[in-house]
């Protein structure tokens, strides 16, 4: 069975997921003893079923868009999990097939692995790390007649993005009412991918949906409909019933029509690797989709997007090795050994202090040896009776050499293994080791269910005589503003002023009057 992980549009994704044998996939996960992946598949299948029921019951446009987005994300995750299961099953089959061919390959492999430290170092797997994505911005390319002269294209779009590394798939927030007045689309989301290999491929996909194609009642604000309802109440019962009946009928037909279910289309995508890691925001190219379905839903994209793709390899976030070392120093051409120093391998450097307490109080090290992908670690010829376990750390150019002595052969192998592992990590993560940043786990973007209210809602309300002035001005602006202004998205501005005290006053007739006796 062919598993497709592209998910170019919601129609193909839904059809493929529907045709897959879920029972077969679960049995495949059980045979591989990957219960965590099986749990994820079961969770996404339940999410799909619940989202479909919600999609059938929704009658508001925003709810329909959110449900359609959630369904697409769940389908994409299910396909990614199934593809990963198939890949692991294929790898397991190939491994078992190679074992049956005899022990000749095993003998040659063991002899090849013992040829020297260079081949041993090259066979080491590189460490994993964290990848953080933030500051996502997609510029738009409107025509001058649309954006500057404010006429022409009256389309409005809904847009969101998928971010994928392996089987880990995240989605940005949904941005709606994107029209010709917007110069770019900005997402304030931040994402962190855990346990990422240095050979990762970060896929960035942009999905769009054309909300309305023309100047219809559906593209006008809801306050226009409320204004007509209030107007119909003042022109008479007969005319009012007809107007209200026609509006309610049109609204119910619009929400009940299953053909108008939002279907997001993949309009652009990009693939980034370890070479694109940078601690600052950079611009990357977008590959625009050229098929007819994507073109009809496509925003006028500029062909680029901006994001901050930062990395934190695990070799730069933890101490790799620490212990007692002896350091050789050259003074006036004479080799002098400083004994019983405290060495720590971290942040791409081997730092040495006089004692461990100096490191704990953040004192400056007395000596620092940088370690990069060009560093060479070997057994030194400077060994003597007093220092039999000596390592030589140098660069391939051989300009500077450092000699370190360990307390025992076991300590020597431990330091050598840690240094060689760091060299492999430096070569795999490239510049990400030099531009590593601290990445913290992001909190889930879910509204808190805890209320911050400590008193009565009555005490926090501010009642004044001009409560409806703002609504009335907005309603009147529907008939006075141009159609383009009516389509302009109006931001919700939070009121930063403090609550006013209630202005309730007690009528004089209810005030108890005291009379002088």
From TrEMBL:
SUPFAM superfamilies (UniProt xref): PH domain-like
UniProt region (Disordered), positions on chain: 92-126, 242-262
Entry keyword annotation includes Protein transport: no
GO cellular component term, pick one: actomyosin contractile ring
Biased composition (Polar residues): 245-255
Keyword set, alphabetical order: Coiled coil
Domain REM-1: 19-94
Residue spans of biased composition, Low complexity class: 104-123
Domain PH: 318-424
Top-level taxon of the source organism: Eukaryota
InterPro entries: AHD (IPR012966), Cytokinesis/Rho-signaling (IPR051364), HR1_rho-bd (IPR011072), PH-like_dom_sf (IPR011993), PH_domain (IPR001849)
GO biological process, any: signal transduction
Protein name in UniProt: Rhotekin-like isoform X4
Annotated source species: Acanthaster planci (Crown-of-thorns starfish)
């Amino acid at each position: 069975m062919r598993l497709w992980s592209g998910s170019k549009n919601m129609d193909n994704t839904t059809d493929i997921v529907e045709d897959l044998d879920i029972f077969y996939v679960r049995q495949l996960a059980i045979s591989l003893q990957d219960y965590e992946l099986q749990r994820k598949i079961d969770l996404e299948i339940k999410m799909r079923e619940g989202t479909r029921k919600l999609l059938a019951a929704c009658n508001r446009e925003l709810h329909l868009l959110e449900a359609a987005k959630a369904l697409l994300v769940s389908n994409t995750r299910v396909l990614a999990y199934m593809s990963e299961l198939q890949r692991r099953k294929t790898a397991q089959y190939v491994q078992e097939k190679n074992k049956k061919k005899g022990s000749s390959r095993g003998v040659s492999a063991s002899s090849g692995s013992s040829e020297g430290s260079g081949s041993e170092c090259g066979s080491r797997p590189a460490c994993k790390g964290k990848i953080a994505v933030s500051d996502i911005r997609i510029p738009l390319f409107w025509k001058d007649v649309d954006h500057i002269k404010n006429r022409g294209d009256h389309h409005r779009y809904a847009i969101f993005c998928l971010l994928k590394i392996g089987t880990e798939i995240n989605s940005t927030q949904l941005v709606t009412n994107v029209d010709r007045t917007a110069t770019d689309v900005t997402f304030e989301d931040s994402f962190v991918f855990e346990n990422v290999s240095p050979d990762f491929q970060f896929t960035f996909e942009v999905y769009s949906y054309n909300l309305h194609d023309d100047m219809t009642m559906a593209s006008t604000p809801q306050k226009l409909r409320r204004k007509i309802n209030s107007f119909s109440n003042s022109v008479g019962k007969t005319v009012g019933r007809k107007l209200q009946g026609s509006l309610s009928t049109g609204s119910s037909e619009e929400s009940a029509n299953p053909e108008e279910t939002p279907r997001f289309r993949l309009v652009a995508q990009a693939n980034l690797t370890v070479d694109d890691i940078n601690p600052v925001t950079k611009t990357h190219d977008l590959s625009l989709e050229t098929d007819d379905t994507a073109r009809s839903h496509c925003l006028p994209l500029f062909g680029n997007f901006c994001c901050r793709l930062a990395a934190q390899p695990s070799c730069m976030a933890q101490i790799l090795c620490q212990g007692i070392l002896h350091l050789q120093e050259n003074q006036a051409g004479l080799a002098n050994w400083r004994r019983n120093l405290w060495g720590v391998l971290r942040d791409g450097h081997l730092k040495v202090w006089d004692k461990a307490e100096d490191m704990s109080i953040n004192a400056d090290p007395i000596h620092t040896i940088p370690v990069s992908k060009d560093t060479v670690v070997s057994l030194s010829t400077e060994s003597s009776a007093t220092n039999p376990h000596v390592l030589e750390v140098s660069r391939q150019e051989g300009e500077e050499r450092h000699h370190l002595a360990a307390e025992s052969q076991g300590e020597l192998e431990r330091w050598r293994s840690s240094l060689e592992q760091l060299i492999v990590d430096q070569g795999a993560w490239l510049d990400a080791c030099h531009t590593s940043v601290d990445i913290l786990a992001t909190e889930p973007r879910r509204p808190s269910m805890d209320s911050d209210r400590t008193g009565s809602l009555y005490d926090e309300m501010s009642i004044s005589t001009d409560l409806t002035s703002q609504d009335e001005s907005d309603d009147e602006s529907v008939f006075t503003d141009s159609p383009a202004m009516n389509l302009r998205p109006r931001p919700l501005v939070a009121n930063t002023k403090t609550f006013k005290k209630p202005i309730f006053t007690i009528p004089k007739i209810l005030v108890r009057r005291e009379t002088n006796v």
